[in-house]
Design a protein that fits this description.
The complex is a heterodimer of chains A (245) and B (753). Chain A has 245 residues and is α/β, with parallel strands linked by helices. Chain A is built from 13 helices and eight strands. Helix content of chain A is 51%, strand content 12%. In chain A, helix 5 packs antiparallel against helix 6 and helix 11 crosses helix 12. Chain B is 42% helix and 14% strand. Chain B has 31 helices and 25 strands. Chain B is an alpha/beta fold and 753 residues long. Classes of the chains: A alpha/beta (245), B alpha/beta (753). Strand 2 of chain A pairs parallel with strand 13 of chain B, so a sheet runs across the interface.
C-alpha cells in the first residue's frame, strides 16, 4: 500500500505541524507516507472563486503528481471534497471530458485523514493521549461533502485523558468560506463570532476540526479576543502521546 | 399608501452593514429561522421516501423545462377551453400593463392581492399606484410590510424581521389610514394581531371586484392553477371577487396531476414545516356558479428564458419558492433579506437574480454570487435539489470569464494569477513560501493583528497566523528524506516566469480592493430576438402583451439548439399506503387533531345527533348546507335552523354560524380533507365565509398517502384542500389558528353501515 500525502497549500504555508502530525500518526500505525515535493494546491482556491481555467490546470497537475499512489491522504475535508465534487462540476461546465474522466478515476483513492484511519486502516484508537477539554467543530465540507459523520469523534473518544465537549449549533458554518472571508468580511466575522461564542460556552480549551482553513478563521477570532482557546487539527491531537506535554 | 420597491443598487457587502449592526434584527432572524428549521426537520423526517420525492421533484421540473413550449401551448388551450383568457408578457412592463388594463376594463379602482412572488418581482403594486389604482395586500405578513411602508425580507414570511411588538405598533398606527382601524387596546399577542388583520380586511374581501394572485403550480394537462396558503385570504381572493387575474412565471408550469402529488408533499414541508398547509386551492378557468366569472392568466417570462439558456444555471428554474434555503442559511441569518437587494433574498436569490437580470447586471447583481460561504446547507434542504453552491461557483466563473474577455484588470485578478503562477511552478512556489517564512522571521511574531489591504479585510476581526518556524518540507528532508518523491525532471515549467517579488509589485500597483465587484456577468446572448407582434386573441386585444408564438420564440430557439432531456430517477416514492384500514383512520385522526381541528367519530346512524351536538356546543343558531346536501343526515335541531345555499349573498353567508359539508377524499398522512364541489359540498364560498365548518368524512374516503387521493378527485372542478382551521405563522413563526377562513373546523369520521 503506497500512501501519498497531500498536505494542501495552506498547511504547506502555515501549518507544517499538521502535516508532520499526519506522518507521525500513520508511522505509529506502521505505514510509510510519501511526499511528492512538487505538490502545491488542489485547485480549490481558484475553482471556488471563479478562476476556473486556472483551477482546472491546478487540479490536473495535482492528479498527475499523485497518480502513482494507491491512496492519497489529506488532512483537509475541504480539499478532498473539492476532488470529489468540484472537479466533476468544473469538468461538466467546461465540457472537458478528458478531465471528467481522470477526475472520476482519481477521486476514489483520495481520502480525508479521519476517513483513512477509520475506513481503510480500520482503527479508532491510534494510541494518543491528550489531557484536555476538546470541542469538535464539524466543518461544512466534512459535514456535507465528505460526510465524515461520527468518524472524527470516534477517533477523539479513543484518545486517552481527552474530554470531548459539544458546542451548540455545531452544524452551522463558521463563516470562513474562502474568498467569502475577504469579500464579505463583515458577515464572515459576524458568523465567526457566533461560532466562537458557542465554542467558549462549551468550556473547551481546544477546538478541533478537519480543516485548518476554518480553524484559521475561528482561531483568529479567539486570538484577537485573547481567549486562550487554542485551535488544533485533529491530526495534531491524534499525534500526541503520553510523553508529550 | 405608497409601494416601496427595491432600488438600492449597492453591492451586498455594503447593504449588509446595517443589518449586521442591528442586534434586534439578528435576534428576530435567529429565533425565527431556528424555529422553522426545526419544524421542517421534524416533518421531513416522518417521510421514508423524502429523497425519492426530491429526485422526482427535480426531474419533473427539468422535464417541464425541456418541453416548455408545448406545455405553454397546452396551458393556453386548456385555460381557454375552461373559459379563461391567457396573456403573454415578456417582461415586467408588459405584465403590469396587461394587469392594469384588465383591472380598468372591469371598472375597478382597487384590487385585493394574494401573496405572490411574481407580482413582487414585477413590482405590480408600484405600477398600479402610478396608474391611479390601489393594490391591497391581504396576506398577514405582506400586510405588515405594506402598512409599515417596508420591504419584504423573506420569501415565505416577508415580515420575518419584525417582532410582535413592532407589528402591533404598525397596526395601531396605520390600519386606520387605509380601512378598518386596529382595535383600541390591541396587545402584541399573535392571536389578537391576527384578529385585527381579519377585521381590517373582512369588508374588503366581501366588496372587492378584482383580485390578483400568483400561482404555486400551473398544471398544463388541465390548465389548473394551484395556490397554497394558510390564512384563507387566498381563498377569499380566489373565490369572492368577480374577476381574478393570476400572474404566473413560466417556470411554474408542471406537466400533469401526477406531478402535483410530488410537489404538494415537498412544498409545505420545506416551506412552513407543515405536513400540509391549511389551505390549497386549485381551480381551472371559470366555473358556473362557483367563484369568479372572469379569469385571466398572465404568463410571464421576465428573464426566465435567459436563465434557461445557461445549461448549468437553468437548474435555478426548478425553484418552487419554498424558502427552505433561507431558513438554513448562516449568511441569511445574519444579513436578513434586505441586503440581497431584491424580492428574492437568501441563497436562491443569490443565484436567481443574477440570472433573470442578465440583461441589466449592476454592482448588486455582481456581488450576489459571492454572498455565500459555500457551506452547502441550502443544497441539503432544497426540495428540488438545486445545487446552489455549484451554481454560485458557476456564476462566479462566468463573472471572471466575462471580465477577462472584456480585458479588465483588477487587483483580485492580478493576485489570483500570481498565486496561480506560483502554484504551477514548484520552484517559484517553494521560493515564495521561503520568502514568506523569512519575512515572518523578521517580524518575529506568531500572529499579526493589523495588516495593509487586502489583508486588512481579514485582520479587522481576526488575527492572522504567520509562517514562522521550519517548514514541513525541511522536516521531511531531515526525518524522511527517502520518502520525498521528486518530480520528473522532464515536467515542463510554467510559462509564467513572473518572480514572486514581481508579483508582489504588480499586486501593490493595482491596490487590490478585494471587496470590489468584478465587472459584468456573462450574458451569453443578450441580443433580444424581436419579431413583429401580431394582435392578441379574445378580450386581450386592447391590452399589451404578445402572441404565444412571439412569447415562445426565444424558448423554442434555446431548446432547438440542443437541450439535454433529463433522465427519470430510478427510485420511486410511495404511491400507495402500507397501513391497515384501522391504522389509516387512526393516523388521519392524529394528524387532523395535530393541526387543531376537532375530531368526532360516529356511525352513520348516530350522525344526525352528532351534528346536533356539535352545533349545540358551538351555540350555532344558523346553519347553511348546499342544495344537494342530503338533509336526512342532519339532526332535528340542525334541520330547523338550516338554510339551503340558494346563491346566498356573501353578506348573508357572513352572518351564518355553521356550514355542514361532505368531503371528496381525505389524506391521513397530512390530516387533509379535500372538497371538489361534489354532492353535499357546495360552492367554495360556503365553506369559506362561514366561521364554523363541520365536514363529514366517511372512513372509506380516507387514504393513507397523497398519491392515492389524486386519482379520486375531479381535476377540473374547483377544489379546496383543508388541513385544520385557518392559521398564520407570520408573527415570529408562532402558529395561531383563526384568520380569514373558518376559525373552527369539526371533522366527523363516519363509520358506514
Amino acid at each position: 500500500m503506497k500512501i501519498g500525502l497531500m498536505i494542501t497549500c495552506i498547511n504547506d504555508a502555515l501549518y507544517p505541524k499538521t502535516a508532520i502530525a499526519v506522518v507521525k500518526v500513520l508511522e505509529r500505525l506502521g505505514h510509510s507516507v510519501y511526499f511528492p515535493e512538487e505538490q502545491s494546491c488542489c485547485g480549490q482556491m481558484h475553482l471556488n472563486s471563479g478562476y476556473r481555467q486556472e483551477g482546472i490546470e491546478l487540479a490536473k497537475r495535482s492528479i498527475e503528481i499523485f497518480s502513482d499512489f494507491d491512496y492519497v491522504v489529506s488532512p483537509s475535508a475541504s480539499c478532498v471534497g473539492t476532488v470529489r465534487e468540484v472537479y466533476h462540476n468544473a469538468a461538466k461546465a467546461t465540457h472537458d471530458e478528458q478531465f471528467e474522466e481522470i477526475a472520476l478515476q482519481y477521486s476514489p483513492k483520495v481520502y480525508e485523514f479521519s476517513e483513512f484511519l477509520t475506513d481503510i486502516l480500520e482503527v479508532e484508537d491510534v494510541g494518543a493521549s491528550f489531557p484536555h477539554k476538546v470541542a469538535y467543530h464539524p466543518t461544512c465540507h466534512s459535514l456535507r461533502v465528505t460526510k465524515a459523520g461520527d468518524r472524527p469523534t470516534r477517533l477523539l473518544r479513543a484518545v486517552r485523558n481527552l474530554q470531548l465537549l459539544e458546542i451548540e449549533k455545531q452544524d452551522s458554518c463558521c463563516g470562513f468560506g474562502g474568498v467569502f472571508a475577504l469579500k464579505n468580511s463583515d458577515t464572515s466575522i459576524a458568523m465567526g463570532s457566533d461560532k466562537f461564542t458557542s465554542v467558549k460556552r462549551s468550556g473547551a480549551e481546544v477546538l478541533c476540526s478537519l480543516d485548518n482553513s476554518c480553524l484559521t478563521h475561528i482561531g483568529g477570532i479567539s486570538e484577537k479576543m485573547k481567549s486562550g482557546i487554542r485551535v488544533m487539527h485533529l491530526a495534531e491531537i491524534l499525534a500526541h502521546t503520553g510523553d508529550q506535554k | 399608501m405608497t409601494s416601496r420597491t427595491f432600488d438600492d443598487p449597492r453591492p451586498f457587502q455594503k447593504q449588509v452593514i446595517a443589518a449586521l449592526a442591528d442586534s434586534q434584527l439578528r435576534a428576530n432572524l435567529s429565533h425565527a429561522t431556528t424555529t422553522i428549521r426545526n419544524k421542517r426537520a421534524k416533518v421531513v423526517g416522518e417521510l421514508s421516501d423524502w429523497e425519492a420525492l426530491r429526485d422526482h421533484g427535480a426531474y419533473i421540473k427539468d422535464l417541464a423545462q425541456s418541453t416548455l413550449p408545448e406545455l405553454i401551448r397546452l396551458v393556453q388551450e386548456n385555460v381557454t377551453k375552461a373559459g379563461g383568457v391567457v396573456h403573454f408578457a415578456r417582461d415586467k412592463d408588459e405584465a403590469n400593463q396587461i394587469a392594469i388594463a384588465l383591472t380598468k376594463s372591469y371598472g375597478a379602482k382597487s384590487v385585493v392581492k394574494i401573496k405572490s412572488m411574481a407580482t413582487q418581482e414585477i413590482e405590480l403594486n408600484k405600477a398600479f399606484e402610478e396608474a391611479g389604482l390601489e393594490a391591497y395586500e391581504t396576506d398577514l405578513a405582506e400586510l405588515i410590510v405594506q402598512l409599515g411602508d417596508d420591504l419584504p425580507s423573506h420569501i415565505l414570511v416577508p415580515a420575518i424581521h419584525k417582532n410582535r411588538s413592532q407589528i402591533r405598533e404598525i397596526f395601531l398606527e396605520n390600519m386606520g389610514k387605509s380601512g378598518v382601524p386596529a382595535p383600541m387596546g390591541l396587545t402584541d399577542e399573535p392571536k389578537q394581531l391576527a384578529a385585527a388583520a381579519r377585521s381590517h380586511l373582512r369588508a374588503r374581501f366581501l366588496e372587492s371586484k378584482v383580485a390578483i394572485s400568483g400561482g404555486n403550480f400551473l398544471v398544463a394537462e388541465t390548465g389548473s392553477i394551484v395556490i397554497v396558503e394558510s390564512e384563507g385570504n387566498g381563498r377569499m381572493c380566489l373565490t369572492l371577487p368577480e374577476t381574478l387575474i393570476s400572474v404566473v412565471g413560466i417556470d411554474k408550469i408542471i406537466p400533469d396531476w401526477q406531478s402535483l402529488e410530488v410537489f404538494l408533499q415537498l412544498l409545505p414541508r420545506s416551506s412552513t414545516g407543515e405536513r400540509m398547509n391549511p389551505y390549497t386551492s386549485i381551480f381551472t378557468g371559470v366555473t358556473d356558479g362557483d367563484g369568479p366569472k372572469n379569469f385571466h392568466l398572465i404568463l410571464i417570462d421576465n428573464g426566465r428564458s435567459e436563465a434557461l439558456r445557461d445549461p448549468v444555471g437553468r437548474e435555478v428554474l426548478r425553484c418552487i419558492r419554498c424558502s427552505a434555503c433561507l431558513n438554513v442559511c448562516p449568511v441569511y441569518e445574519r444579513a436578513g433579506g434586505h441586503a440581497y437587494g431584491s424580492t428574492y433574498p437568501g441563497p436562491i436569490g443569490a443565484v436567481l437574480v443574477p440570472q433573470i437580470r442578465r440583461g441589466s447586471i449592476g454592482e448588486l447583481e455582481k456581488s450576489l454570487p459571492y454572498a455565500s460561504s459555500l457551506c452547502g446547507a441550502c443544497y441539503e434542504v432544497c426540495p428540488v435539489k438545486i445545487d446552489i453552491p455549484k451554481l454560485l461557483v458557476e456564476l462566479r466563473s462566468q463573472s471572471v470569464d466575462s471580465a477577462r474577455n472584456a480585458g479588465s484588470i483588477s487587483g483580485e485578478k492580478v493576485l489570483m494569477e500570481s498565486v496561480y503562477a506560483a502554484f504551477k511552478n514548484p520552484t517559484l512556489f517553494r521560493n515564495s513560501l521561503e520568502i514568506a517564512r523569512k519575512g515572518a522571521a523578521l517580524i518575529g511574531k506568531r500572529t499579526i493583528n493589523v495588516a495593509p489591504p487586502p489583508l486588512s479585510a481579514w485582520t479587522k476581526g481576526r488575527s492572522l497566523p504567520t509562517p514562522v518556524g521550519p517548514s514541513f518540507r525541511d522536516w521531511m528532508k531531515e526525518n524522511h528524506p527517502e520518502n520525498i518523491v521528486r518530480g520528473p525532471k522532464s515536467k515542463k515549467r510554467s510559462s509564467s516566469s513572473r518572480s514572486a517579488l514581481g508579483s508582489l509589485r504588480a499586486m501593490a500597483k493595482f491596490g487590490f480592493n478585494l471587496s470590489k465587484g468584478i465587472p459584468n456577468l456573462a450574458p451569453q446572448d443578450s441580443a433580444k430576438e424581436t419579431k413583429q407582434t401580431t394582435g392578441d386573441q379574445g378580450r386581450s386585444t386592447s391590452v399589451a402583451g404578445v402572441t404565444i408564438d412571439d412569447f415562445t420564440y426565444p424558448i423554442n430557439q434555446i431548446i432547438g439548439a440542443g437541450f439535454q432531456k433529463p433522465t427519470a430517477p430510478l427510485n420511486s416514492y410511495n404511491k400507495a399506503g402500507v397501513l391497515s384500514h384501522d391504522e389509516v383512520i387512526e393516523l388521519f385522526i392524529d394528524r387532523t387533531i395535530d393541526y387543531k381541528a376537532t375530531i368526532t367519530r360516529c356511525s352513520e346512524a348516530e350522525l344526525p345527533q352528532t351534528i346536533d351536538a356539535l352545533i349545540a356546543k358551538n351555540s350555532t343558531t344558523t346553519v347553511v348546507i348546499s342544495k344537494d346536501f342530503d338533509e336526512a343526515l342532519l339532526g332535528e335541531r340542525a334541520r330547523t335552523i338550516s338554510s339551503l345555499d340558494d346563491n346566498l349573498t356573501y353578506d348573508t353567508l357572513d352572518k351564518i354560524n355553521t356550514v355542514v359539508t361532505t368531503t371528496a377524499v381525505a389524506v391521513a398522512t397530512s390530516g387533509t380533507i379535500i372538497l371538489d364541489g361534489g354532492k353535499g359540498q357546495g360552492r367554495r364560498a360556503i365553506s369559506l365565509i362561514v366561521d364554523h365548518h363541520i365536514a363529514l368524512v366517511y372512513e372509506d374516503q380516507i387514504v393513507e398517502v397523497l398519491p392515492e387521493a389524486i386519482s379520486r378527485i375531479n381535476h377540473r372542478a374547483p377544489q379546496t384542500w383543508i388541513s385544520g382551521p385557518s392559521a398564520t405563522s407570520d408573527i415570529e413563526l408562532e402558529r395561531v389558528e383563526g384568520v380569514h377562513g373558518p376559525r373552527k373546523l369539526d371533522v366527523i369520521v363516519v363509520e358506514r353501515g
